[in-house]
């Protein structure tokens, strides 16, 4: 069980009507942390527009485009015993656009992006195939606990559309 969770939610975009609630975000974060046996945690989640996402992605990853979620793990000296995990920047426009393009409920895609970002803050990555498989399986498991479908499974309609496009 989580003793203390502090999520500093910063809304820096105009898409507030489509955003999940603070309570939903905290629930998704808590699901990850409980699964990973983290007792105390503090993190910031900044919901940004495409311009800020592209700026952050360019500055910190040298990729000059907006992206769905960026994670910035805390890099504290070991002698500081603070529960600070780090920061996430999630682009509301990209999340909405991806959900629409992939035929997913917006809330489910938001949950996936928050979970994905928190796993990055905890040290998970998807640079190689083994890491990607582990991270994706954790995401699927956690989303299922929350009542969401596997974000990596295509529906028959998606498969037919893809097959038609390839012919």
UniProtKB/TrEMBL annotation:
Q: Which UniProt keywords apply?
A: Cytoplasm, Endonuclease, Hydrolase, Metal-binding, Nuclease, Ribosome biogenesis, rRNA processing, Zinc
Q: What class of enzyme is it?
A: hydrolase
Q: Output one GO BP term.
A: rRNA processing
One cellular-component annotation, GO: cytoplasm
Location relative to the cell = Cytoplasm
Q: What is its EC number?
A: 3.1.-.-
Domain of life of the native organism: Bacteria
Residues involved in Zn(2+) binding: 116, 120, 126
| GO MF annotation: an example | zinc ion binding
Read off the InterPro entries from this record: MetalPrtase_cat_dom_sf_prd, YbeY, YbeY_CS
**What is the free-text note on the cofactor?**
Binds 1 zinc ion.
Primary localization class, coarse: cytoplasm
User: Which Pfam families does the record match to this protein?
Assistant: YbeY
Q: According to its UniProt record, which cofactors does this protein need?
A: Zn(2+)
For this protein, the record's HAMAP family field holds:
Endoribonucl_YbeY
Q: Which family does it belong to?
A: Belongs to the endoribonuclease YbeY family.
- Free-text function comment from the UniProt entry: Single strand-specific metallo-endoribonuclease involved in late-stage 70S ribosome quality control and in maturation of the 3' terminus of the 16S rRNA.
- Full protein name: Endoribonuclease YbeY
Q: Which organism is it from?
A: Zooshikella ganghwensis
């Amino acid at each position: 069980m989580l003793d203390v969770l502090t999520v500093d939610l910063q809304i820096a975009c105009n898409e507030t009507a489509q955003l999940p609630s603070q309570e939903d975000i905290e629930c998704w974060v808590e699901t990850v942390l409980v699964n990973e046996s983290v007792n105390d945690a503090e993190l910031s989640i900044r919901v940004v527009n495409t311009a800020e996402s592209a700026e952050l992605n360019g500055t910190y990853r040298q990729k000059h485009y907006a992206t769905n979620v960026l994670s910035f793990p805390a890099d504290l000296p070991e002698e500081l015993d603070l529960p600070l995990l780090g920061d996430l920047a999630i682009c509301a426009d990209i999340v909405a656009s991806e959900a629409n393009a992939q035929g997913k409920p917006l809330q489910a895609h938001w949950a996936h992006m928050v979970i994905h970002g928190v796993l990055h803050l905890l040290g998970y990555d998807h640079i190689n195939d083994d890491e990607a498989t582990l991270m994706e399986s954790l995401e699927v498991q956690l989303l299922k606990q929350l009542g969401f479908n596997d974000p990596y499974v295509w529906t028959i309609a998606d498969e037919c559309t893809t097959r038609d496009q390839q012919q």
